[in-house]
Each structure stands twice: as C-alpha cells, then as structure tokens.
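Reviewers of the previous submission asked for a worked example of the structure-prediction workflow described in the proposal, so we include one complete record here. The input consisted solely of the amino acid sequence. No template or homolog information was supplied to the procedure at any stage.
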Amino acid sequence: MTVIKQDDLIQSIADALQFISYYHPKDYIQALGDAYEMEQSAPAKDAIAQILFNSRLCAEGHRPICQDTGIAVVFLDIGMDVQWDCNMSLDEMINEGVRRAYTHPDNVLRASVLADPAGTRTNTKDNTPAIVHTRLVPGDTLKVKLAAKGGGSENKAKFACLNPSDDLVAWILKSVSDMGAGWCPPGIMGVGIGGTPEKAMLLAKESLLAPVNIQALMQKSQQGQTLTRPEELRLELYEKINALGVGAQGLGGLTTVVDVKVLDYPTHAASLPVAIIPNCAATRHTHFTLDGSGPAVLTPPKLEDWPEVTWSASPKARHVDLNTITQDDIQSWKPGEQLLLNGKLLTGRDAAHKRIVDTLAKGEALPDGVNFKNRFIYYVGPVDATKGESVGPAGPTTSTRMDKYTETMLAETGLIGMVGKAERGPIAIESIKKHKAVYLTAVGGAAYLISKAIEKSTVIAYEELGMEAIYEFEVKDMPVTVGVDVHGESVHKTGPEKWSKLIQK
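From that input alone, the workflow returned the following structure tokens.
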C-alpha cells in the first residue's frame, strides 16, 4: 500500500513550480530551434532568437523565463489505493506548495493572483490559490501534471457551442486570427472538442501538457498509417494556422504554432462544443509521479540541449535617447524598424492607468515624479529583484488592455510613446495617429534578457499596487521594434498580410 506524505507533495509542488519557472521543456526548445532555422522573416527570426537566448540565460541563472510567472494549474490522477499521511486537505497541500515556490528567496516569482476579482481585486501576495483538477483512477500512485499559465495567453482562450453541421476548422482559424499576437506566439494551440462547455475547455487546457510531437505525426501520415480524427485535425490545423502568416510576436512569418493539440470527448447529439487555448512562448509545464518513496526528483535539462542561438542587436538598429527625445524626433520612425532605448522610461499597466485616468478626470494632479511630457511608458509588471539585480525579469504585457486609456494619456499628459507587446486595437491606433505618437513592441518571452538592459529601477508612485506600481527604469540599449508609426501604420497588420500571401504562393 502506497502512503503519500503531506510534506512530500508540498515539496514536490514547490520544486516543480520553481523548476518550470526557468527551464523550458526540452521538446519545445528544440521545436523553436527548428522554427528559427526555417524562419525567413527577419523581424520574426530576431524575435525567436531573443526568446531562445532568453531561455538559455534563464536556465543558467535560475530566473523566470517571463515576468508573468503564471497561475498554477494542477492535474492530479489519484490512485484509488493511495493512502494519505496528512492533516491538510488536498487543495491546502497544493496551495502550500505554490506559496513556498512563489516566495522562494533565491528566485522570487511574481505574485499575480487577485482575490475578489469582481470587487477589490486584492493581490494574495503568494500566488495562491492554484487551479486544481482531480481524478480518481485505479492504482497506488499519485500522478501530477503541473503548469504555470500566464494571463496573456489565458485571456485569448475561445469557446463556442457550434451546431453539429458547422465548419469546425473554419471557426478555429477565424478565432486564432482574431487572437492576434497577445498570446505571444510561437507556441502551442490546444483544442478541446465535445463533452459539455466546461469539459471542452478542460480538454483544451490539458492537451497543452502533452509533448511537442507534430513532426512524428507527420511521419506517421506520410507512411500511410491510419490516423484518428483528432490526429487528422492536428495536421490540418497546424498547416492552416501557420499559413495565416501571424508569425513570431505577430510580426509576420512562417511559424505561428510549433504544434497543435486536440482532445475530444463524446457529446450530445444536438451539440458541438469547441474550445481553444494557446500556450505562449513561455511554455511551462512538468509531470511527476509520487509512489511513497519521497518527493519528486526533477532532472534538469542539459545546456547542450539548447540550440546554438545567441542574440545581439542589429548594427542597423537606431539608438534613441529617451531623456532628450521630442515629438519631432519620432516622425521618421518606420514600422518594423529596430530601436535601442537609452535613458529614463516610466512604467504603468492596468491598475496604474485606471488611477491616472481617474485622477485626471477629477482635475487633480498626478503624484510627484509622474510627468509624461515627451516621455515613453512601458507596459510591464516586473518580477521583484534578487541577487543584486536592479529589477527582476521585466518583459512587456499585452498592450490592448491599455487601449481604452490611450486617448486620455496622449491628449492630457504629453506622452509621445508607448512600449508593450502585440498589436493595438483600432481605437488606440486612431489616437496614435491623431496625436502623432508611436507604439513600440518588446518581445514577450524575453523578460530576463530585457531586464539586463535595465540598469536602475525606482518605484515612484502607487507602491501599494506591487508589480502594478509605476516605476522609473533607467535603460541602456533596450531592444524594441516600431509597432505603430505616427501615421497609424501597424506592423502587426502589414507583417501577417505580407507573409500570408507569400505562404499561400
């Protein structure tokens, strides 16, 4: 009879969350390396290089791959013959493991979970509670599949109750196209089909925890072996999603997904529920089994498993002095152009923007030190610093969430530029064009690499918001790309359009 001890499960959860914070799965890294070798779009190739180089830095430095260290999602297959040596509930043990992982002094992870989501939205400070799914199965072991899912990719999840006669593939392709780049491609697309609405979503989420093996499935098809319908869908969707030309970070290119996963389940005769959930460039998951012999042992990947890809800024990149820049200086910048930012850069994301806009609406002054005249704002919520860092990993957050604040920020504060990730919506682009401002993109999935360019970090307002406070960064050669120019031209529109046509040819 297997006896699972409380401390063994807690320690295993804590160790696993730390492990996946800085180690990409080997299969994903190798698939991304293949995508890098194949990529012909220069901006997309540069973005993939940053993601790969960032991944290696994180593996070496044991620091988070992404500043959004995710919400913990745990799938448990509990053997019905397992006995427990514990005085806590199962959820309490999982959450204690999460708490220890996210507050580990040697590798602090960002606390992103908020209680009272429709009210005060108060940070729980330790990233609890986790999302726990359990099954009772035959056997005497505890099998654990664990992931840390970032908000950018989770927010792009889609669900529909289709009619049985509807075109399933057409709906998925339209939904992926509508996702844009906010989920940080290239990554993995999980699809759940059947069951009931909640079952379809669960299938899509769990499918993302399987190994990257689309190439093996292609070989199986080429050898004439019989495929199941989910396997046929995987191959069809893999080809057609990549043919959209979205590419790495939405800049246009050959690889949008490195794999597509499909799980299905019997459903009602009147129903065709379907869900899709993307896994971003910060793909993070691991699996382990507890058999009563102690906590899980996780084997680190070898550094030679990483592709031999390094990154350095293009010699053609334009150097920008943020301390002296004026609106006249940005008029000649072109979509897709690479820049290296130097000087002082303010930060702010959802909560800070809301406070700023509410303050301005009341006719009140902004806090001391918050002056946006001829300045740029970076949409970021960084990880706390450790080991002598000026700041922890500090990659961009999805910019579309700030679209509704853009007109006020550009019209009333003197702001001339914004930095984030993914595309801007039509309302924001119209404001950018109207006020002759610019929008720049940094690479999602390169948070630790970006933090190396931040030489100093100071909280200057709203400290109680934690990672959502307003910081002032002093940066040196921080790499960005012009996403939207002063004329409102967006690289996230022109890039995918160009590459979709090239791929179709």
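The two ends are 62 Å apart (CA to CA). We consider this example representative of the routine output the project will generate in years two and three.
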